[in-house]
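Aim 2 progress update. The chain analyzed this quarter is reproduced below.
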Amino acid sequence: MRPLGLYLHIPFCKAKCIYCDFYSLPHSEEKMDAYTAALQRDLIRWADQAKGHTVDTIYFGGGTPSFYGAARLIELLDAVKATGRLLKRAEVTVEVNPDSVRLHDLRALHKAGFNRLSIGMQSANNDILKMIGRRHSFHQVEMTVKNARTAGFDNVSLDLIYGLPSQTRSDWADTLAKAIALRPEHISGYGLKLEEGTPMYELKDSPLIPSDDEQADMYLCMVDELRRYGYEQYEISNFSIPGYESRHNLKYWQLDDYMGFGPGAHSCIGRTRYSYVRDLDRYIAGVLHGEDTVSYTHLTLPTKLEVEI
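Predicted structure tokens:
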């Protein structure tokens, strides 16, 4: 049996951050239940087609999975369990935002089998958080980490962003120090990318945006500081205490098989790469009524390496 990673895209969020280019939809809560039904149907169809695979990682990303709700997330995990393919030692990650997850949610998720938490911290500077459209404060990040430990999570990751508007090297160093003080097992630090079509793209020539040289300095600061506190770098933007590397993230780098579900989700099985249409309604209709929503690409190895890395 070949190992397989599953990615479940949860495209719902309370509000869209001004830098976000991922497929996500604010103010679409009325579609959540129909989407859950479509994902469950898609997972059943996958189980019938992939009999030679076992699932050793699952990643619930978004959007904001915690805004989607713990009960729906558990329904989807139960759907994977029902296929009989999920290994007992599987890594099961869910992304959460500090403003949309509470202790009772975390307890329910952990009890259901979620064992890794990725918390969207981004910055410790509340003014910067507000500027980029985040709905939480750093204090809420602290409370989320505390609640995660209380709920039983012993594998916690924090997501950070450098190169944000008005951010200085000193701001970034403070964010790193405060993130490290929370003692997560894993930290991801991503450089800001100004994507065309996002509100923040209009700031591309603004002096508020740190220069390339300033971003490079922030990156090197991150590498040095995290190494000093025992976090080993295993990807360009990912660092962990030894033994806590994200097994799901490593699949993308090691060219292992993974399958994505949901609008905009990508899959790569062997030399075949495919993706779903970036449209929630079309995805739901496609799964529930048999409409075509998939685009295929056959990859040669050099192309695959180029795409994945």
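The longest strand covers residues 86-96. The mean pLDDT is 92. These observations will guide the mutagenesis experiments scheduled for the next reporting period.
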